[in-house]
Amino acid sequence: MDYIKLIRQPDISMVAGIKVTKDTDIVFENESGTVKQSIKDLVFHGTTEVKQDNIEVKNEITVNLNEGDIVIYDGEERGYVVPAQRFMTVDEAIKELECVLATTNAPAKGDE
User: Fold this and answer.
1) Under DSSP, is residue 35 helix (H, G, I), strand (E, B) or coil?
2) Which residues, 6 or more positions from 30, have their beta carbon under 8 angstroms from its beta carbon?
3) Quick one: which of 9, 19, 90, 95 has the most CB atoms within 10 Å?
């Protein structure tokens, strides 16, 4: 049996975001005033308020960030989010794929 080298197909959809530095200073509030967020001194702080019928919910979050962390802008209703999955710049992704391409010359299992 001849084996071939495979990788998962990369997700090439792009999103807007920033790479956080110690100098990042952002204040965001959506038009309805239900989402308020800030990033300063590597600390992300956000509050979200939801009012529907007789229900009122207020969520607060504080995240200590590291330099180089990615924060994604997820639109007017959510503002900025710290993604659960790993994101990278297009240049970083190209470098990783170039490394993968360089290893394709090594023999695959069964080619030895």
Assistant:
1) strand
2) 76, 77, 79
3) 19
Residue 37 sits at φ, ψ, to 5 deg, of -140, 155
Q: Would you place residue 108 in the very low, low, confident or very high pLDDT band (cuts 50, 70, 90)?
A: low
Task: Kindly list the strands in the beta sheet with 43-52, ordered across the sheet, starting from the edge strand earlier in the chain.
Answer: 26-29, 35-40, 43-52, 55-64
Residue type, 17: G
CA-CA distance, 73 to 82, in Å (whole number)? 9
pTM assigned to the model = 0.73
Who's near 47: CB < 8 A, 6+ residues apart?
35, 36, 37, 58, 59, 60, 61
